[in-house]
Amino acid sequence: MSKGIAIEVHPEKCTGCLICQLCCSLVHHKTFNPSIARIRVLVRSVSEPEIVFTDDCDKCGTCARFCAYGALEVKEVRG
Question: Model's pTM, two decimal places?
């Protein structure tokens, strides 16, 4: 069986700090620029932001490793 990684999202824990987007852009583009990150935090509601991944996301887990609030979690997937 092969193993993969999935990012589990807990939007109720998200504060909208954008650390995930900053870390993603730094790892993949060598600059702090949330607008080019492969993850998006969309704050449409005060109660719960929406977290989405772009098609370019390779599930590296950087966003989850640096999430200080537990809104993103790396899960190992067997397939």
Answer: 0.87
